[in-house]
User: Which sequence fits this backbone?
DNA sequence: CCTGTCTTTGAATCTCCCG
DNA sequence: TCGGGAGATTCAAAGACAG
């Protein structure tokens, strides 16, 4: 009994995938995930229900907390039940992930320790725990605890050897040139972004801010990737995916949420290709071997290179190798050998004299690379 | 085979307790805790092994080696072994706690989910999870993940009905008259506070800053309370307890740590609280990186920016980078590149059109900063 | 004595491609 | 699947030291 609510938007539909992409699947997330092809999804973002214990306590008719929560068996039953639920959906999620896929799960102290343990037990590989620091948390009205001012996210790979997507350069330059840390500051979802129903009441109790998903998708997906959200709610994941030129698959049980999400996502203009392109990482740049600098006449055989402090020097040979005393080999190997280091990036280590300016040979590589990129464009 | 290393200091000895107070017990913490009277301790602070599972050495980009935690006490065969260890000491700990007692445990994503789940399973009652944001964390040298910039603490009561100590007013006072939040900012332990041996090497690989223990003991104990630390290490808990007029019981297996802790604590004058000013880090100006303007919807991907004279333009991409012709990178880098300058303050260089008015993007930063500061005040 | 520069270091599950 | 080599990668704080 699996329903599908298709959104008007379906970007890149000619991709020919069998995946029900840019779509909301209505019903239980485990059943729906098990119906999807294995190894087909790049990223999962999940905002699962928090611990059942709280709901149970609140819905008791007599409100007597005394027998309810103090009994060992009750508590054990409750956590055990939550664990069964958690392991079920995490198992189904792992099946649909590509080998190099990854998952994000958000939670609070009520449930995040169960989730984290389950991830580890199911052979996911934890990459980071991330703290969402709320700029405007709800105060602790009774003054009995610290203000609960954060939620925790876990970022985990499908397995230990998964080579997950991480747009390191993009994160770094968006953070004013220093590495993005594990503590993120965002306001909670309020104002115009918060979905309201006809009675001006919030549609969903825990709608997440788009800024949070924006950072997550920017950091750990590429344009065109498929992002699955098994607890879709009012569709924040889908909304941000559409804005960023990613595909989404939402799964949600509640019809009211599905309706709100469909309306919300339909109103969004998909992101333009150039605007959502990801900064090219160094590792993916056009490869320029050292020998081509010599071949193209940028550096003459016999030229002396040295390190920034001029402690070491080496001579360039016509075949693209370096010689320094007894050492010979690639720019990297000789750089490592003269320092007695395990390894060395010769492009940054070796310098030459350019009109009196001491510059790393990497500058010559950059100019050749720019030339090559221009030609191939 | 339980040894005791008594410190010279023993405050309030006339209290007539059978507890071995202001003392370090040398040996296994479970055995020692089981030898203590049940229901006798007000608070436990525990910094257990994190089970880091490091596989290979790590070098910084300058080829220097990172001094990793490779001690035997941090090695466990599997999560199952770690869980057995965790449940054993948490069970013993719960027995020695007074009915209204509480526990603090600190950890990282490697172990904290195991600890949190165990606490819940053993009928502790979670009160808060607290994030220690490190002012100066170690960077991620390989550029493969987010900088691991925090550790997590769990504060839990012995049971759901425990009426634990929480000095709400003191915390509020210490936090400029607003409730103390669940995210705390402290530098890591370095400099004069970090204990060094004869070879000028650190005595303990993971010594915690005293400021952290100051806040914990100030928040959740009263003067004269007994604080037990089953993984005493070099005795930060004991040192701070003595300064704050609390009693401590330390348990530690390694003789070298015990010796260092004894010497350290002996040198402290009890209760001389003013003498050791707690570093309450002043709130720095809220950092607003360029990427957050996009994440928070103040500037749309695809927007064109230009300089004041409109000689250059660039497009904002969703990942926080700018593109201008062949150049891509941060607002600062692209600003410098288009001008052929060495450097550039992108915040002042790049402008956008705000209702016909040409304003530097720095104005948006100012407004978002004001908003965030308002929210968090 | 102050100021600026250089050096050191910290709980870390820290690469990728090709043959 | 494994081994070897190319080549990519760091931030804040404190101390040492020079001027």
Assistant:
């Amino acid at each position: 009994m699996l329903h599908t609510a298709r959104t008007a938007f379906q970007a890149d539909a000619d991709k020919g995938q069998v995946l029900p992409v840019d779509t909301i699947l209505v019903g239980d997330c485990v059943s729906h995930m098990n119906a999807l092809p294995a190894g087909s999804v790049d990223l999962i973002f999940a905002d699962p229900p928090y611990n059942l214990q709280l709901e149970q306590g609140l819905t008791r008719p007599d409100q007597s907390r005394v027998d309810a929560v103090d009994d060992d068996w009750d508590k054990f039953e409750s956590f055990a039940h939550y664990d069964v639920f958690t392991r079920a959906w995490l198992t189904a999620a792992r099946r649909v992930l590509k080998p190099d896929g990854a998952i994000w799960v958000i939670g609070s102290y009520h449930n995040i320790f169960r989730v984290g343990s389950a991830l580890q037990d199911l052979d996911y590989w934890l990459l980071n725990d991330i703290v969402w620091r709320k700029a405007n948390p709800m105060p602790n009205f009774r003054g009995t605890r610290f203000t609960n001012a954060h939620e925790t996210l876990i970022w985990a790979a499908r397995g230990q050897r998964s080579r997950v997507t991480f747009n390191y350069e993009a994160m770094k330059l968006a953070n004013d040139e220093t590495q993005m840390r594990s503590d993120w500051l965002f306001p909670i979802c309020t104002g115009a972004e918060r979905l309201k129903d006809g009675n001006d009441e919030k549609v969903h109790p825990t709608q997440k801010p788009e800024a949070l998903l924006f950072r997550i998708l920017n950091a750990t997906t590429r344009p065109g990737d498929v992002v699955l959200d098994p607890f879709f709610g009012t569709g924040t994941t889908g909304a941000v995916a559409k804005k960023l030129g990613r595909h989404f698959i939402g799964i949600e049980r509640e019809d009211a949420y599905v309706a709100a999400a469909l309306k919300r996502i339909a109103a969004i203009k998909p992101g333009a290709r150039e605007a959502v392109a990801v900064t090219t990482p160094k590792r993916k740049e056009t490869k320029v071997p050292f020998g081509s600098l010599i071949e193209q006449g940028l550096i003459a055989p016999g030229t002396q290179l040295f390190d920034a402090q001029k402690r070491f020097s080496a001579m360039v040979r016509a075949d693209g190798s370096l010689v320094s005393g007894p050492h010979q080999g690639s720019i990297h190997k000789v750089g490592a050998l003269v320092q007695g280091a395990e390894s060395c990036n010769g492009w940054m280590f070796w310098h030459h004299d350019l009109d009196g300016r001491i510059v790393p040979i990497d500058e010559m590589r950059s100019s050749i690379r720019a030339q090559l990129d221009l030609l191939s464009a």
Residues 125-127, 160, 163, 283 of chain A lie near DNA strand C (CB under 10 Å from a C1'). Residues 37 and 96 of chain A are 6 Å apart (CA to CA). The mean pLDDT of chain A is 89.
